[in-house]
């Protein structure tokens, strides 16, 4: 099964969170599981906050790219199109909210499960749950916005 990120064109695959071309990044992969999207990631020992527990910034980063990837996947699904078909669906993060419910144990695989709360042409909201060993440790909300054609050009 291909992940949504496997459909990203090479020139848009340099993101620190999800770019397959970024050797220093997380290179996350997001798949459908029924109505939910799932990303799994095993943290390294250096992803430490307090010894034994995962750094919250890593969790935020995973939720971020899980959210934008899920937004693209959900848009293709809603339009009844194969991922990666033209016109390409590109999302960036408009906002990212993370609620840390309890410490996330460092070592086991982290699972992030997303659901679409709102889907419009230019804006998709993805709610995520972060689980380790079946324990919910954080919640995330990503507002993903279609990347404007001139993204970054005015900067
Ligand atoms: C399958 C094949 C795919 C192929 C293709 C792949 C492409 C794969 C790309 C990889 C990329 C990875 C991405 C990783 C995630 C980052 O790290 S992305 C980097 C961090 N994010 C940024 O740099 C974004 C910077 N901000 C911006 O460029 C602009 O502010 C935005 C977010 C594009 C918004 O543009 P805008 O023109 O202000 O949007 P606008 O039309 O006013 O608003 C549209 C809607 O969004 C809402 N909105 C706008 N901004 C926000 C906000 N900040 N918060 C909440 N709501 C907002 C508006 O309220 C509006 O909502 P409605 O009224 O329709 O309900």
Task: Describe the protein.
Keywords: Apoptosis, Cell membrane, Cell projection, Cytoplasm, Fatty acid metabolism, Hydrolase, Lipid metabolism, Membrane, Transit peptide. It catalyses: hexadecanoyl-CoA + H2O = hexadecanoate + CoA + H(+); dodecanoyl-CoA + H2O = dodecanoate + CoA + H(+); tetradecanoyl-CoA + H2O = tetradecanoate + CoA + H(+); (9Z)-octadecenoyl-CoA + H2O = (9Z)-octadecenoate + CoA + H(+). This is Acyl-coenzyme A thioesterase THEM4. Its EC number is 3.1.2.2. It is a peripheral membrane protein. By secondary structure, this protein is of the alpha+beta class. The chain has one domain (4-146): Thiol Ester Dehydrase, Chain A, CATH 3.10.129.10. 15% of the residues lie in helices and 34% in strands. The protein has one helix and six strands. It has one helix at 56-78; strands spanning 30-33, 36-41, 91-100, 110-119, 123-132, 135-146. The chain has a six-stranded antiparallel sheet, covered by helices on one side. Strand 5 (123-132) and strand 6 form a beta hairpin. It is globular. The N and C termini lie far apart (38 Å). The relative contact order is 0.19. The structure holds Palmitoyl-CoA. The site of Palmitoyl-CoA has 27 residues, from helix 1, strand 3 and strand 6.
């Amino acid at each position: 099964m291909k992940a949504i990120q496997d459909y990203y064109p090479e020139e848009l695959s340099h993101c620190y969170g999800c770019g397959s071309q970024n050797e220093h990044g997380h290179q996350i992969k997001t798949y459908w599981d029924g109505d939910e999207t799932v990303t799994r990631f095993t943290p390294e020992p250096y992803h430490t906050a307090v010894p034994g527990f995962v750094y919250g910034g890593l969790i935020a980063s995973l939720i971020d790219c899980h959210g934008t990837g899920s937004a693209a996947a959900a848009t293709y699904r809603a339009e009844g199109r194969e991922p990666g078909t033209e016109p390409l669906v590109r999302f960036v993060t408009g906002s990212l909210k993370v609620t840390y419910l309890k410490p996330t144990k460092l070592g086991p695989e982290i699972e992030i499960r997303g659901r679409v709360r709102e889907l419009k042409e230019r804006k998709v909201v993805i709610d995520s749950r972060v689980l380790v060993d079946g324990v919910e440790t954080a919640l995330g909300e990503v507002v993903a916005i279609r990347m404007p054609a001139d993204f970054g050009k005015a900067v």
